[in-house]
Write a structure and sequence with these properties.
Structural class: alpha/beta
Number of domains: 2
Strand order of the largest sheet: 4-3-1-2-9-10
Radius of gyration: 18 Å
Order of helices and strands: EHEHEHEHEHHEHHEHEHEHE
Strand content: 15-25%
CATH architecture of the largest domain: 3-Layer(aba) Sandwich
CATH topology of the largest domain: Rossmann fold
Number of strands: 10
Number of helices: 11
CATH class of the largest domain: Alpha Beta
């Protein structure tokens, strides 16, 4: 398939649902001239409880669709899909600039004062070969101890849109408290959905009198890497063109993604349902 090589072409961003919007906001802030196309694969979510091959197949299908829409670059704004599928995406489309989202183990190890780092992520992310290799590499280099906590069901609750729901508060207590009890002084938000419940996580920290804990979110780093790849490829959109556009598409419910754009980003964004 032909890869778009024009600076005027859009950037494709995808996630299993609305979590990737936490990365999208960093991209919009750092690259305000770029047209963006966001795909929420909500009809096949969550990815965290699917097999690795299922996630690979979905990532390739969504990538192919975004390329048919002229995408010049791809952001896999999903930790689970990055761990499971980014290697396959790059192998199939070697000319496509691709940026993935990995749990921020390296910056977390650097930020930790006692070497104990809690990692909140989906079960699929924490079992992925790519993640486990990264953990071993950074542990060997820094001697940091990574305390892994699968946050089962949290993505599903965030997808519902009520970030103050009692169920979310209860889950955050159930998943964060054990990491604090083990002495973690740094927490990695290892899923792009989790920055949207940062307030709830900070509430748990206050209740446990652990406001000294550092939270690591890698969305800003992803946007910076995307900018570097676009600049290196001569694909940065100039500020001379029309106002940048943002479009949404989903394999799930249009109303759900429309609400997410409004409630999470404060945006009124056109959304289309796509069968992929």
């Amino acid at each position: 398939m032909q890869i778009a090589r024009s600076p005027a072409s859009p950037i494709g961003v995808f996630d299993s649902g609305v979590g990737g919007l936490s990365v999208l906001r960093h991209i919009r802030a750092q690259l305000p001239n770029e047209d963006l196309l966001y795909f929420a694969d909500s009809g096949h979510a969550p990815y965290g409880d699917k097999t690795e091959q299922y996630v690979v197949d979905r990532a390739l299908a969504v990538t192919e669709y975004l390329l048919t829409q002229g995408a010049k670059a791809l952001v896999v704004a999903c930790n689970t899909a990055t761990v499971a599928a980014i290697k396959a995406v790059r192998a199939r489309y070697p000319e496509l600039p691709v940026v993935g989202v990995e749990p921020g183990l390296k910056p977390a190890a650097a930020a930790s004062r006692n070497g104990k780092v809690g990692v909140l992520a989906t079960a699929r992310t924490l079992k992925g070969e790519k993640f486990l290799q990264l953990r071993e590499q950074i542990s060997a280099a820094t001697r940091a101890e990574f305390l892994l906590q699968p946050a089962v069901g949290l993505v599903d609750e965030i997808e519902k849109g009520d970030l103050e729901a009692p169920q979310i508060g209860a889950m955050l207590e159930r998943y964060v408290a054990p990491l604090l009890d083990q002495g973690a002084d740094t927490l990695v938000l290892g899923c792009t959905h989790y920055p949207f419940v940062r307030d709830g996580i900070e509430r748990v920290l206050r209740e446990h009198e652990r406001t000294d804990v550092t939270l690591i979110d890698t969305g800003d780093a992803v946007a910076r890497q995307l900018g570097r790849l676009l600049e290196a490829g001569g694909l940065l959109q100039s500020a001379d063109g029309d106002q940048a556009t943002l479009k949404g598409c989903t394999s799930g419910e249009v109303a759900a993604l429309t609400r997410a754009f409004a409630s999470l980003l404060g945006l009124s964004t056109p959304v289309e349902k796509i069968a992929v």
